[in-house]
Amino acid sequence: MWIWDWIKNLFVSSNNPGTPVKSVSDMKLGRILKGQLPTARFELADENYAVVKKNWLLHPFYNYYKKVLKGLKISGWTEDFDCDDFARLFFSIAQACHAKGNTKNQGISVGLMFYVEEEEYGMIYGHAINVAIVDDDLSVIFIEPQTGKEKCLTESERESCWFVYF
Length: 166
Description:
Elements: H1 3-10, E1 22-25, H2 26-36, E2 41-43, E3 48-51, H3 54-71, H4 83-100, E4 107-108, E5 110-118, E6 124-134, E7 139-144, E8 149-151, H5 155-160, E9 163-165
Parallel strand pairs: 2-9, 3-4
Antiparallel strand pairs: 1-3, 5-6, 5-9, 6-7, 7-8
Helix pairs in contact: 3-4
């Protein structure tokens, strides 16, 4: 089976983000993100975004994303498929699920970001993860696409973010 046929066959109703909680304009989304990531450069590709539920993103969607990884025979981090590749695929699959839904919004409130991650023992390095605006209160959450877990960034990690794409 050709890969795109396989991916298309994975789409089922549980992977649809459903009715968005609300819609947010690119300007408002940018202001919300700027409050959390003050030094980052932003690229907002759409005029408006469907705001998704945090629960959908971290559970049904993440389980679906893991199936896509398995189908692509990606079992973990490698030199050829590292953090930015995981974040881009998470972002792209979320947008594809959104496109299959019945919403008038151009995009989904899930993006990707690059920042300097602090590790134990003072080690630091560049890292890519996903960022999302979720729920009625328009909360900002950070997601590690390699684990599906919500990530709590330190103030210096937030300030180190150099690029965000939605």
